Amino acid sequence: RKEVEQDPGPFNVPEGATVAFNCTYSNSASQSFFWYRQDCRKEPKLLMSVYSSGNEDGRFTAQLNRASQYISLLIRDSKLSDSATYLCVVNRGYNKLIFGAGTRLAVHP
Amino acid sequence: ETGVTQTPRHLVMGMTNKKSLKCEQHLGHNAMYWYKQSAKKPLELMFVYSLEERVENNSVPSRFSPECPNSSHLFLHLHTLQPEDSALYLCASSVGLAGDSNTGELFFGEGSRLTVL
Predict the structure, then answer these.
(1) Across the interface, which of B40, B90, B104 has its CB nearest the CB of A43?
(2) Which end of chain B has fewer CB atoms within 10 angstroms, the N or the C?
(3) B5 to chain A: which residues are within 8 Å by CB?
(4) Contacts of B40 in chain A (CB under 8 A)
């Protein structure tokens, strides 16, 4: 079993749609959690951290459920520029980051 | 423009060749990483260096040999590779590893795409 599991997608949504991605992790000792974004043929970049209380950054909302070992990302009012692969990431500690395989999002006009 | 630069961007090599990938970070960070990204697979952590000292070797075959001469430079020496080693090799850096530096934020280079024939 992979340590971080994501639905690979692709999610094909129209502009303006709301889309949600889910992720589960298996190591209960994981310390912190993140979403990274990777554009086609580009390097991954940190999108946002994920906190137990939930956190929001503009159109993006992240949630963490430690009991269920479940992480989510909600994107509201999707833009064409949101098209990318979204990587769920857990930190085992000392910045040892374990990545999911990613969920691909394609936003169309 | 990325603060982490990798060269070469593309490399084709035969199984008997010896080549090296180079990474340089201009961010003043103390930790550097090598990750491997194969198609439709998660990024795989290969090596972690902190202040030029290797702190993680994630069961990587010995045909991959890292070198960190200083905190700004990281190399991956390649020797007798197999076709299944063809992948995108990503270098990353972070402020550090522990305490306030354990932020989960890695800064990646654009990668070196390796093809082994």
Answers:
(1) B90
(2) N
(3) none
(4) 8, 101
